[in-house]
Amino acid sequence: MCLHIVISELTNNILQSEMETLKLTNIAENHLLGLSPEILLKWFDEMLLIRRFEEKCAQLYGMGKIGGFCHLYNGQEAIATGSTGAITPDDYVITAYRDHGLAISKGLDPRRILAELLGKSTGTTKGKGGSMHLFSREHNFLGGHAIVGGHIPLAAGAAFAIKYRGEKRVCLCFMGDGATNIGEFHEALNLAALWKLPVIYVIENNKYGMATAVERASAVDALHLKAAAYNMRNQVVEDGHNVLKVYQAVKAAVDHARKTYEPSLLEVQTFRYRGHSMSDPIHGPYRTKEEVEAQKKLDPITVLMNILSEANLASEEYFESAEERIKAIIDECVTYTENSPEPPLEELYTDVYAE
Ligand SMILES: Cc1ncc(C[n+]2csc(CCOP(=O)(O)OP(=O)(O)O)c2C)c(N)n1
Ligand SMILES: [Mg+2]
Predict the structure, then answer these.
(1) What is the CATH superfamily name and number for domain 54-336?
(2) Nearest-CA neighbor of 106 among 125, 85, 123, 126?
(3) pTM above the 0.90 mark?
(4) Ligand 1 close to Cβ of residue 148 (< 6 A)
(5) Is the pLDDT of residue 169 over 90?
(6) What angle do CA 241, 302, 327 make, to 5 degrees?
(7) Dihedral, CA atoms, 195, 200, 205, 209, nearest 10 degrees?
(8) Could you tell me if the CB of 217 is within 6 A of ligand 1?
(9) Ligand 1 pocket, 269 CB below 6 A?
(10) DSSP for residue 344
(11) What is the DSSP code (8-state) at residue 22?
């Protein structure tokens, strides 16, 4: 059974009993943007799943079970959950190599994601892509791309196809701050604006590229303003650690794109807790331990916990039970992956060229 169904079933069961005991009083409608308690609790579970999944990856990487490059998403969870919360399964998502969180949010089975990371045949691309190249046509998840900026024109292409076919879908394209300095970013934004393509570009501004602060690499450090050169709708989300703020901005851009086919560029400010990739130090010479610790005080999961507690939507017991449920899912991912076979040698020759 798909783990997402398992999560939502478990969440629903717990919710029913939680709801009976918790009073839903004094909740300002606009504070929670009219989102149902079910959705907010599902988002909490999803963000916790992403965090614990990444922690497990770090552990397995340290044990030598995951090889190659591996970029973790710890600290950025509110972006994946808030953004995918604003679209439907029909819409496309495309991103760079820091892709585990978005893949989970887009509904890919976390067991198959972990299997992919360990190069197993049950992985999302039969173990051939690894961490940076998660992909699922079935889920409209178009990758997972390792070349910085390389996927930004692909998103314009997907959005062109949507418009050409007269569909009402959108394409959400995520990128890092560093990617906005790449030529493809500018070429793609120009065409997306010129041809009015339903693509929403989301910059995950975590303040650094590999080890380079935004202001050392970009002449403009208010990155959303780069859209102005192409007369493109743009917005900055300063509290990108708050899933509701992310959702609100992405939803407005998505609604606009569905109505007008017009693109948007959003800059969502965030922070990564780990090193750039698993082979890099967490602090390094380019940022201090104090900076990392200060940013962790805005932790997206804690922020959502506080929102849920203040609105009387969840108690300490709920959060503890969520930890247990997520731990069971992570354990299942590991068991599934360990029991999965390596791909046979013949797999070297399949899926190389399109038929
Ligand atoms: C075209 C290209 N140049 C350089 C690299 C090496 N590289 C990998 S990640 C990275 C930094 C990108 O930073 P950012 O876009 O901010 O994304 P983040 O890692 O912060 O999510 C670089 C320079 C690459 N993969 N592709
Ligand atoms: Mg960055």
Answers:
(1) Thiamin diphosphate (ThDP)-binding fold, Pyr/PP domains (3.40.50.970)
(2) 85
(3) yes
(4) yes
(5) yes
(6) 110
(7) -60
(8) no
(9) no
(10) P
(11) S
Contact partners, residue 104, CB within 8 Å, separation at least 6 = 46, 49, 50, 53, 80, 110, 113
- Which of 210, 215, 278, 282, when mutated, tests ligand 1's pocket best, judged by the most ligand atoms within 8 Å of its CB? 210
Going from the Cα of 209 to the center of ligand 1, the distance in angstroms, rounded, reads: 6
Cβ contact 30:310 at 8 Å: no
Q: How many CB atoms lie within 10 A of CB 18?
A: 18
Band (pLDDT 50/70/90 cuts) for residue 11 is very low
User: Going by C-beta distance under 8 Å and a sequence separation of 6 or more, which residues neighbour residue 167?
Assistant: none
For 145-163, write each residue's pLDDT tens digit. 999 999 999 999 999 999 9
Q: What is the pLDDT of residues 245-259, one digit of tens each?
A: 999 999 999 999 999
Mutate to test the pocket of ligand 1, among 100, 133, 148, 277 (most ligand atoms within 8 A of CB): 148
Residue whose Cα lies nearest atom 23 of ligand 1: it is 210
The CA distances from residue 206 to 69, 139, 185, 227, in Å, are 19, 26, 17, 18
Q: Per DSSP, which regions of the chain are E strands?
A: 92-94, 171-176, 199-205, 233-237, 264-269
What element of type H or E holds 337?
Answer: helix 316-338
Return the SS3 of 114: helix
Tokens of 132: 């940076």
Helix 300-310 with 37-62: angle, nearest 10 deg = 150
Q: Where are the domains of the chain?
A: 54-336
Spatial distance between the Cα atoms of 98 and 104, rounded to a whole number of angstroms: 12
Statement: residue 299 has pLDDT above 90: yes
